[in-house]
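Dear Dr. K.,

Following up on our conversation at the group meeting, I've run the structure prediction for N(6)-adenosine-methyltransferase non-catalytic subunit METTL14 from Nezara viridula. I'm pasting the input sequence below exactly as I used it, so you can double-check it against your construct before we proceed with anything downstream. Let me know if the numbering doesn't match what you have in your notebook.
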Amino acid sequence: MSDTLKELRERSQKRKKLLAQTFGVSNVAELRQVLGTAEEEPAKKVPILSHTPTEILNEKEENGTDSVVYKDSSTFLKGTQSSNPHNDYCQHFVDTGQRPQNFIRDVGLADRFEEYPKLRELIKLKDDLIAQTATPPMFLKCDLETFNIKDLNNKFDVILVEPPLEEYQRTMGVTNIKLWSWDQVMQLDIGEVAASRSFVFLWCGSSEGLDMGRACLRKWGFRRCEDISWIRTNINSPGHSKNLEPKAIFQRTKVTCFWKRLHYSSRMVNIRP
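The predicted structure tokens came back this morning:
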């Protein structure tokens, strides 16, 4: 048992040294400062008459009270050292003190397809084609209850539908917009502006919205192929709603339970000629 524990400690120490080398710090002791997990020392009591406000301000600036914020998980992506596997989320938390699910992986486009040269070349060709054919972004301010979508006279490959549901008012306190029912959402003629090979993203909330969202997709001629859930892991994250529903005891942290649920759907067409 002691030999196993000793081996695990040696491997952990080796990983920390590799992390220190990756972040560019001189030793393992400085790794906590870079990752933002260093324990704060209690502030020293300063006599009121011993320093002027200017001297105290200068002392704070010299000490560098601004903490470094750990913003991403690029150190734990694929292609890193073998002693630090990119899919070991438990070790990610042990080494950094940060929850890996708080960060989006592969955010760098330059290194995203480094291990797949053919896919990287395909993405490059697609980006060149989009740069030549894409039009500038445009918007149309109108009332969808009275506007005829067919008047757009265009077909879209990707459509995002985010209706102002009643749930938004209940959870976020939004009261300055007119709320829609699912019957109104279903009356939108999305199929008329969708291309033969197209995708639609539909935010449908929770509870009854899951079933009504599927009904909307069927009516529009789309087929549901995947559900994507957004789960918030930190209650203290910026922008997180602290509002509780009536008679609620616990704070919900799963977005799929009370906020939004994303449907990723494809048009029901026969790709083969």
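Two things stood out to me. The first strand starts at residue 156 and ends at 161. The chain has three domains: 2-103, 104-134, 137-267.

Best regards,
J.T.
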